Amino acid sequence: MLSISLIKDAIIFDSLGQFMDKGGPVLWWLAALIFVFWLIAIERILFVLFIFPKRQQHWLTQWKIRHEHQSWYAHKQRDAWLSQAHLLLFQHLHILKCLIALFPMLGLLGTVTGMISVFDTLSMQGTSEPKLMAAGISMATLPTMAGMVAALAAVFFYSQLFSMMEKKELHLDKLLRSRA
């Protein structure tokens, strides 16, 4: 049973390696950026699930132990905590947005490098070797497809993450104002 699983894993990794090789060097750069995107995205999810609730509870406790909530100083303190929450919640989201914009651009760069490879093959071999041209066309289309798929998945995730961050921020604002 274990050997069947290892064989399946080897086949999957071999297929992935072939896909990456057919896409050319640009596809490897795209894969690296996708990895960075998901690394940052997972960090943001873990922050929202585990770290932010502790910070929120700390701010709510600090607000609750205040003797007065109506003074100018109290309002400024509450606003400072809300600003801190905003900065913590939306930290690194601009990097995610930038990476999303780079995904299709790298895909298009792969298209250009693949087409250059096709034209190079045509100039050296002529049209007598269709397999060589097919490799260049593959190198032109795979990065484009991968860049678009990565961008679509990332845009969907980013919008969900951004919405979650806004809800957390509004919820904290509501909690701090309701205890005033």
How would you describe what is shown here?
The chain is elongated and about 85 Å long. It has five helices and no strands. The longest helix is centred in the C-terminal third of the chain and has 49 residues, at 130-178. The protein has one domain (2-178). The protein is 91% helix and 0% strand.
Identify the notable features of this structure and list them briefly.
single chain, 180 residues, mainly alpha, 5 helices, 91% helix
What topology does this entry show?
Blueprint: H1 2-23, H2 25-65, H3 72-89, H4 93-125, H5 130-178
Helix pairs in contact: 1-5, 2-3, 2-4, 2-5, 3-5, 4-5
**What letter string, H or E per element, gives the SSE order?**
HHHHH
Instruction: Please indicate the percent range of residues in DSSP E strands (runs of 2 or more).
Output: under 5%
Total number of distinct structural domains:
1
Give the strand tally: 0
- SS class: mainly alpha
Calculate Rg over CA atoms: 25 Å
Percent helix among the residues? over 70%
What summary fits the major beta sheet? none
Give the uncertain stretches in residue-range form. none
> Tally the helices: what do you get?
5
Termini separation = 62 Å
Describe the global form: elongated
Mean pLDDT level: 89
